[in-house]
Specification:
It is a single chain. The chain has helices spanning about 20-25, 60-70, 90-95, 115-125, 140-145, 150-170, 195-210, 235-250, 295-310, 370-380, 380-385, 395-405; strands at about 5, 10, 30-35, 75-80, 105, 125-135, 180-185, 215-220, 255-260, 270-275, 280, 285-290, 320, 325-340, 345-350, 350-355, 360-365, 410-420. It has about 425 residues and is an alpha/beta fold. The protein has a six-stranded mixed beta sheet with strand order 4-3-10-11-12-13. A five-stranded parallel beta sheet has the order 5-6-7-8-9, with helices on one face. The longest helix has 19 residues, at about 150-170. About 30% of the residues are buried.
Length: about 425
């Protein structure tokens, strides 16, 4: 603990691993996941933790259902793969989010299908960030990816250029247009000598456009295909030497280094919904369960509630950890819903005004009261009571009861996921 200003209400907590945070405070869910459109890829990277490419991709109907249901539970998502632009309907998906910039995208093979200016514009206006993989400038990159299709630098420059043009065209209408570009650079024995040259070329793009925003230089973890290619893992001391050299020469660049040494403990901070029908965690070290059998929010809650506890017992095993199946346990609760759909809402400096034109009545909610009322109309009663602490329910309830009597709100019975019954693992 670093800072504790108000008891349990506000804390600043220092941790060395996200798992510490999850276990200490009982984290039960997340607000974002990755949606893997396909496991097809132009590359066959020797360190790929998913062992791509595989001839698996999302059924369009399943994908549409998934992107509809995730926001219902307050879950945003980014798209990845494989190489996401190899998915036949990737443009259709981006068009659904055009103008909202509600997605992030991770391109493994450097956006191999992002060929035209229109594609780049679509990317910029449908997503808020892009991660690009570039693993060298010559033979080393080819050996690491097992592909001659090395267009990463050209794609990075084109994306930065189009971003710059977009900024110029929008300057008259908006104050800012933030877009985060990250370059992922894997370092192995095959490509280590090319990395300084690669960073030099990225530096030239950075000097011209101010992009990328982050350059993540890492030693791949020994997972997936890396286990079969363990001889390619660069020695730790050589990686450290490289990092020192790069940091010294390119001190102005946003370089981040990750040595990935030792045997990391399992975390639930990287959830991926895969087209094979399963939800995975922690770079596919943990197989949570089937999204065809269970609702996605159930799987996410299960992963956080019991996944870590179960995985900790087996994390020294050098294999995929598959969680046992479960039965979700629901209980009834109530939530306040807006009843009168004809009401008009106006914001003030310190609250909101609700106008009932038919009755010629206005309701003014000021200060924190309107925020509390909003909580009770978004969350079931038991959860809302927890969220308004230390304010007692009896402070808010008279207002809720009055607005219910006035026909503004009505109570609706709902079922809330409370716990899980873990089935016995027959293996």
């Amino acid at each position: 603990m670093v800072v504790d200003m108000t008891g349990d209400l506000f804390k600043v907590y220092k941790y060395s691993n996200l798992r510490d945070l999850f276990e200490e405070f009982g984290v039960t869910s997340t607000t974002s996941v990755n949606l893997s459109l396909t496991q097809k890829c132009n590359w066959k990277c020797i360190f790929c933790y998913k062992n791509c490419p595989k001839p698996i991709q999302f059924d369009p109907d399943d994908l549409l259902a998934m992107i509809r249901v995730l926001p219902m539970y307050g879950i945003s998502f980014g798209i990845t793969g494989g190489e996401p632009t190899l998915y036949p309907y990737w443009r259709n998906l981006l068009k659904l989010f055009y103008g909202t910039r509600g997605l992030s995208i991770i391109t493994q093979a450097s956006g191999i299908r992002l060929k035209t200016d229109e594609d780049i514009q679509l990317l910029l206006l449908a997503t808020s960030s892009c991660k690009i993989s570039i693993h060298g400038v010559g033979r080393g990159a080819i050996e690491v990816t097992k592909s001659r299709a090395q267009k990463g630098l050209a794609f990075l420059k084109k994306l930065a250029d189009e971003w710059n043009k977009t900024i110029e065209s929008l300057e008259r209408r908006t104050n800012s247009f933030n877009y985060k570009i990250t370059v992922n650079v894997a370092v192995l024995k095959e490509n280590v000598n090319e990395i300084p040259v690669l960073i030099e070329r990225i530096s030239e793009i950075y000097d011209e456009y101010g992009k990328p925003d982050k350059i993540d230089i890492f030693r791949p973890e020994i997972m997936g295909r890396m286990k079969k290619n363990i001889k390619s893992v660069l020695e730790l001391n050589k990686f450290i030497e490289l990092c020192r050299e790069l940091k010294s020469v390119f001190s102005d660049l946003p370089l981040v280094f990750n040595a990935n040494y030792g045997n990391p403990s399992i975390n639930i901070d990287c959830l991926e919904i895969e087209p094979d029908g399963y939800l995975y965690a922690d770079m596919h070290r943990l197989k949570v369960g089937s999204w065809k059998k269970h609702k996605v929010h159930e799987l996410i809650r299960y992963a956080y509630t019991y996944g870590l506890k179960i995985a900790k017992q087996r994390e020294n095993e050098d294999c995929l950890i598959e969680l046992p199946d479960f039965i979700p346990i629901y209980e009834k609760d109530t939530i306040y819903r807006l009843k009168n759909k004809e009401l008009r809402f106006f914001t003030t400096n310190d609250g909101i005004v609700i106008v009932d034109s038919d009755k010629h009545i206005s309701y003014i909610l000021r200060g924190l009261i309107h925020r509390f009322i909003e909580i009770f109309t978004r969350y079931p009663l038991k959860r809302a009571v927890e969220l308004i602490k230390p304010i007692d329910l009896k402070v808010i309830k008279p207002i809720l009861d009055y607005l219910e009597q006035e026909g503004i709100f009505e109570k609706e019975e709902v079922e809330i996921l409370r716990d899980f019954e873990i089935k016995e693992d027959k293996k």
